[in-house]
Amino acid sequence: MAKIYTTIDDSMKAFIESQHVFFVGTAPSGSDGHVNLSPKGMESLEVLAPDSVAYLDYVGSGIETIAHLKENGRIVIMLCAFNGPPKIVRLHGHGEVIEPPDEQFAELRTRFGDKGNEHGLRAIIRVKLDRIGDSCGYGVPMYSYEGQRSQWNDWAAHRSDDELQDYQRRENVRSVDGLRALEWPDRKE
Predict the structure, then answer these.
(1) Other C-beta atoms lying within 10 Å of the C-beta of residue 128
(2) The dihedral of CA 139, 91, 115, 11: what is its sign?
């Protein structure tokens, strides 16, 4: 049976931290533009407090989540159990994009410990939650986790910091709908 929670308790935190993949949904304001749903992995999601989470966001071919968050802040993160007892958790809230030059970035990055990779990290997404809910997940099939894919790390490892910044300057400053996304690749140092 579906339930709504006021905060993330220890049991839900354990569930969230045990998932290997989560999905992020955002949309631009108004009725135009493209809704976005992105799968995320790389063990990048962290519960910061009973009412907030954050994840490490890496260089990629799209930038929709960041563009939508900068426009209106709306976001939902969904996790579902692919093994063990069936369960779906949805974390609705207001997201904030913290880019590497931002004052808060270094301190927030420490909350992830040794998770993730510094090379290719383009932002941290922090979400203040206003609705936390779960549901049964009976319709979610069971899958076995085999491990993280190596392709992204391999791709990033073959590029210098300057090459990754150039890629982001070309591919990650505007969304498919033309919304402004990353700021830092265009900043002059």
Answers:
(1) 15
(2) negative
**Helix or strand run (H / E) with residue 170:** helix 161-171
Q: How far apart are CA 133 and CA 46, in angstroms?
A: 17
**Tokens standing for 87?**
């369960």
| Residue 150 belongs to a domain | yes
Residue 188 lies in a domain: no
Which residues in the chain show pLDDT less than 50? Answer: none
**Terminal CA-to-CA distance of the chain, rounded, Å?**
53
| CA neighbor of 37 nearest in space, from 47, 27, 51 | 27
Q: What distances in angstroms separate CA 98 from CA 5, 89, 134, 165, 173, one per listed residue?
A: 27, 24, 28, 16, 14
Contact (CB, 8 A) for 44 and 152:
no
Q: Is residue 189 part of a domain?
A: no
Matching residue, tokens 């190596």 = 150
Count the domains in the chain: 1
Residue 80: inside a domain: yes
Q: Residue 187: what pLDDT?
A: 64
Give the H/E segment covering residue 17.
helix 10-18
The CATH number assigned to the domain holding 152 equals 2.30.110.10
Among 80, 18, 11, which residue's Cα sits nearest to residue 50?
11
Q: Which domain holds residue 56?
A: 3-183
